[in-house]
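Notes on consecutive records. When two proteins share a document, each keeps its own sequence and its own token line. Never mix them. Below: protein one.
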Amino acid sequence: MNEKAQQYWNEFWVGREQPANVTAEQFGMPGTEMANELAQLIIKGAKTATCSNYDGYKQEGEPIPEVGMYTVILNSKDDPVAIIKTTDVQIIPMNEVTPEFAAAEGDLSYEYWYNCHKRYFTIEMAEYGKEFSEDMLLICERFELVDVKEK
């Protein structure tokens, strides 16, 4: 967690016991306008879910997200903009993701969701020397917005 995110996190929890399970990250392609767009969808309440590549967590040795985990959402410049709390985690094949979950990700249609995620995961899997598969496992998370950082 960068210094700005840590400061925001600490200020949010002043006077209360801080949970231990917290991370900070950009959603989408880091450093791009996509990170800003997704952060704004979270702030507006249009995005209440996200998914990630299960294999990516294994490749990077990262712990799988858990219910009760907090995330400081960062914009493309790594500035904190909000805090979310994970409320549900499921590991399912990509081709079993429902249209309802795709809508909770803030996407316009299931087809749009599928095509965007297929492109993203194709690039990501290539970085690991692997190929995209329609039945690749995804970590599907639902979350609630806890706080929006004042500007």
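Protein two starts on the next line and is unrelated to protein one.
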Amino acid sequence: MQLRFAQRDLEALQDLQQAGQFIGGGPVSLFESDFASYCGVQHCVSCGNGLDALTIILRAERLLGNLPENARILVPAHTYIATFLSIVEAGMQPVPVDVNDLLLTSNSVHSHLGSIDGIVAVDIYGKLVGDAVYAFAKANHLPIYTDTAQSHGATTIAGEKSGSRGRASAFSFYPTKNLGAMGDAGAITCNDSDLAHTARQIANYGRSSRFVNDIKGMNSRMDSLQAAFLNNRLMFLDNDNKKRLKIAQVYMDQIANEKVHLPPPDFLDENAVHVFPVFVENREKFVAYLNSHGIQTNCHYPIAPHQQDAFKEFNQMSFPRTEYLHRTEVSLPCHPLLEDHEVQEIIIAINEYS
């Protein structure tokens, strides 16, 4: 997929070599400005990766007094482990809850009202968390942050873009994302100037100037080269997402196998379709079958965070819906360069699976 950008990327590399500035500089400033505008927010703060982005948000909020020390942060159990890790890295406590269908709901939040200090909503598979969750958080004066690592470009019916809906959002630009660099990179988007300023300080050693450090920070900066690569790709994101959505709609319409369960009927609403998931009880057999037909798949994700050895304190918890999703999920090819005949070959193979 990256080959279509080869010439632009080569030119960007040559420009950087001539400029001799490899951290910060023009490409980073340009990407931050353009991505903030794309998301419909005032601020974009670039950083090293998506995990850092969410960690920095939470640390900045603690410094600003918007979250207490050891804050209890509600988070869906159905997510990648990075979401849990960011909360821990920020010195806070994850409070995992089960999901309904795929995503966090206001009912899940309501059941923990009074025992949490904030919320991290996760746009899993690229689908935006529903408006009701944000409305409930606002009504109950709970700060809500969004893990937008999979929802680049997703838009609500009202026209709000991913990255604009919570107090702040954390993006990953890992190469396989809808908007992916050619290495690790991340960003924070928000409308709060104090939050953006503090996040930028944390990401750059806590510096206020070159040798003056006002707060304890970290080194999490986007390379100029990765910013240049992202600048080359941002202009194609909406069109790529439309192609993903078209492929996903064909899957929804034409996959018909009682052993292969499709996502909920509203899955394609407000969705960037980073992943098209199906759910199969005997996942290993299904994956092997598709492999034998030359069809590559992935799994998002084999083991839920609360079942990992890294989080033994949660191992005894039970989240039935989350555990079903992690046990059965298979991600089908859904990238924008798939040809129509390839999509049909995938569907035929799935419908013949027994």
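For the record: The chain has a mean pLDDT of 96.
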